[in-house]
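Possible race condition, two jobs.
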Amino acid sequence: MQIRFCVAVVLGVALIATPAPAVDDATTQALLTLKRVTREGKGNEDAGPAWKTIVSKGGVALLPTLEAFEDGNPTAANWLRTAVDAIAEAEKAAGRKLPADKLEAFTTNPKFAAAARRSAYELLLTEDPSAKARLLPGFLNDKSPDLRRDAIANELEILERAARPSIKADLEKLFALARDKDQVELLAKKVNAAGGKASIAEHFGFVTFASLVGPFDAPESKGFTIPYPPDSAKDSSGKFMGKGAAELKWTPASTTDPLGKFDLNKLLGKHKNSAAYALTTLISEQEIPCEIRVTSPTSVKIFLNQKELFGRDEYHHGSPFDGNVGRGTLRKGENVLVVKVCQNNQTDSWAQDWRFQMRVCDDTGGPLAGVSQISTLDGKPVPLGFIPAQPANTEDKK
């Protein structure tokens, strides 16, 4: 019995010391297949078998699957996330622990995709609940929106539980770090109630001044594909032929909406099968990467300095905040931002919205230092998000 026990111990130690098997070619190929799946459905046919291959490999495929996530392809990330969840469930069902140390190292490494780090964090908590208190303070300024959100919510809960006489300064810090719309609005309310001042519009960097031109005729809802002259606009000069052969020219506009909304139905009139443009001039103190984020229920294109950054030809499928994102670089000095907003011919009551919001921010959705917009009131630079006291032609105008 003693000999057999010793042999068992030796074998157990040997198994523990043996390194995990390397990812085989089949797993590598399956991960590549899932990474190629796109929003338009390309690659879906091969995704199912690839998913099964990855899950069948068990725990050895967990970290490689997390590493396969890439920012910017949410469809592929969904396939990979469900594979990660299936692997984790199978490991737990078999009585095997997940590698908490490796999951923590992965979660805290900003080089990995934000969605993957969030998945790793959630798995880590199932193995080590104490990791929440240990890690969340380090995520307050993280590039992962989900980890940042959790960190801010946790810090706010701690602040309010402490019940100190004044937490205004702490609330202001959290407000500056917040990125999600609901958290920003909540924290702005709390900051203002505590005697501070928080501008949601300036925090988000909304464009509140623009020159508008439209409507252009867009037969059969094809405005997105028609290259009207303002696609390449360098300034707000010039005249154009619009819908019904009407002469169009750029007109100044501004908005007093706290979230930077421009209502084109009010500003240009209610039109169907139409396209319109908004142009704003940005001033940057330095060359800097930026994101142009546009919220609209209709088809949108984004141009920066005559270069198309983004386009999406969809109508009335909802208007999620920051649903359209163009990534580019602001050059030092003047930059011309143009957004094309189309309208189709749907007659449903819920398909009449023709509006947009646009903002300029960094890759976390936060404000960019040293970037301003040119006011259409007096031609002077003002901060992004600045709400004019006397708008030239606002979205509130009847």
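Job #2 (started ~2 s after job #1):
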Amino acid sequence: MAVFEYKANIRYCDINENNELSDKGIINILSQAAGVHSEQVGYGLNEIEETNYTWMLLFWKIRFYKRPKWNTTLNVKTWARKFEKVSSWRDFEVYNENGEKIAIATTEWVLIDAKKQAITRITEDMMERYGLEPKQAFEEEITGKMEKSENGKKIYEYTAQRGDIDVNHHVNNSNYLDFAYNAIPEGESLACNDIEIQYKKQIKLGETCSVFYEIKDNAKIITIKSMDEKVLHATLKFF
């Protein structure tokens, strides 16, 4: 089962104000595809008590070629393209009903011991069950590293609420997009073709963070830091 296929309908909550698949919409669809794939091979959310393993996301890169509208059926192809000691890379290709490729993505994940809440090594059994497909969705090499932004202007502060928290007991990865959108000044376009997100330090319930914004080389860059600005939680780039 090296390449897994998953069909999804674009729901009302997956579209933006222009009736197009939103950034958050595609992240949620791709996350669901990855989760169902993991369940199929025995390492899904419902198996955590048995396996003691869960995955934590470190990095997204998504490229849109076309943004389909509400109620379009998408075919998502996803596969593990690389395993390292404690992390893996998963790629995606997304097609519309006509077979057109509308988006590609790559992600980096780290394996977590659910009881210890600590990074752990990927097992041989896990690699065998997922299978390996070395094909890259992107032609260019993606490292998962993002340049630090030190010149952003602080826009606002936010305290993580109960509704932000997911099954891993921290702010859900897609919610960082909400933080970013709220930092972009009104009147500036949210349209983009490429999105990169690097998660550095999880935000937990009740933690207050500072959100910064800058434009650099025609890219919108949002950084999310701790209140004292000593801890970088995440960097998001739209271009």
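The mean pLDDT is 96.
Logs attached separately.
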